[in-house]
Structures are given as structure tokens and as C-alpha cells.
Amino acid sequence: MKTIKTTSRKTIFKNLLHFFFAIALIFTAACSPEDGRDGRDGINGINGTNGNDGEPGEQGEPGEDGNANVQVSDWFPIQFDHVDMALEYARMYIEIPNTQQFIDNGGIVMMFLKQQYPNSDDFAITPLPYGTGDIYLYYAFGKQIDTYGFEGFTFFASWIGGDVTQLENGDFTLQYVLIPGAEGRNANVQEMSYEEIINHFGLDI
User: Fold this and answer.
1) What pLDDT, in 10s, does the model give residues 5-40?
2) Is residue 44, in this structure, part of any structural domain at all?
3) 93, 104, 125, 154: least surrounded by Cβ within 10 Å?
């Protein structure tokens, strides 16, 4: 009887060992990462608050006007520097420096005549050269050192059969415009009227 009892205990112990070993295998298989199913993605978090705007930068320096290099004279009266009554013509000098450099850089020069009608606010502006009847008005521009001893404009007036000095009575005034090469190449100013030139370059006359 003792022998049989001893055998039964061994059998029970062996069965229990097999049982726990089987449980361990099942548990290991159930926890394998290869066979497990992925969980659901979590809910996205709330967006963070936007940061404060940076302080505005300093104001840049203003650029030059597009007409910054265009020179326009005031209206000035005709006052002849030389009059030849026998030849019925006269001339007037308007000094402008650095004419050679201006011309070499492609600059454009223009001169206008303004006639104020007597006893009226009416006036007329016309580009030079200008001729009507026996009167002819024109100008030359450049370095005239050897000829007249200066550089700039020479305004010429011829009045056949009349007194050319009457043009000095104040009813006639002149104005010149100097347009540098860069501005002049961007506009066909030679074909423009006085008003078109003023408007095109935005000149304050």
C-alpha cells in the first residue's frame, strides 16, 4: 500500500507540472506582438494659441521721384545780350554748365515761348523753333566758348522789317527743359506738346 501511495503522488505532481507548463505556453502566445491587434489612435490634441505678432520694422527712406533729374526753369523775360538792327536780329545767352556731358549722355533739351495777350489773361505756349510772318525764333544749345564765350542756350530772334527789341516788352517769356538721357529714352518727348511733357513727367510748374 505504501508503494502505491507513493506512485500516486508522483503522478499528481507530474500532471500539475504539465498543467502549469501548458498555461505558460498559452499566456506567452496570447501576448505575442506579432499576433496582437493594434489599438485605436488617440484623439488629436487641441492646437496651441498663435504667438503675438512681431513689432513693425522701421520705415524705409523714400525713393526719388521719377522726374527727380528733369530740370525745368521758371518763365523768364526776353532780354537780349546782343542786338543787330541792321541785320534785324538779336540773341540772348542762358548759361548752363556741363553741356558736353549732358549731350554725351543722351540728354534732350527743349525751349518754349509763352506769349501773354495784352489786356487779357489769355496766353499761348509754343515750342521753339517758331515762325510766323516775318518773325522767326529759335535756339542753339551746347558749348559755345569760342563763339560767344559761354556754354548753354543761345536764343535767337529775327524780325524782318520790324523792331526785334519789341520782344522785350514783357509779353513774351521763355522756359527751358533739360531731360537726362535715361528719362528721355523712355519717352518720345520730341513729339509731345508742352502739356503732354508736363503731365508725363508729373512736373509742378
Assistant:
1) 434 444 545 555 555 555 555 555 455 445 555 556
2) no
3) 104
Instruction: Give CA separation, 35 vs 38, 94, 140, in Å.
Output: 10, 103, 102
Lookup result for grid cell 499761348 = 124
> How many structural domains does the chain have?
1
Residue 177 located in a structural domain: yes
The CA–CA distances, whole Å, from 121 to 80, 112, 171 equal 25, 18, 11
pTM of the entire structure?
0.64
Q: Which domain holds residue 109?
A: 71-201
Question: Does 62 fall in a domain?
Answer: no
Whether residue 113 is contained in a domain is answered as yes
The one-letter amino acid at 161: G
- The per-residue pLDDT for 202 is 76
Q: In 3-state terms, what secondary structure has residue 160?
A: coil
- CB-count burial class (<10 Å; 0-12, 13-18, 19+) for 178: buried
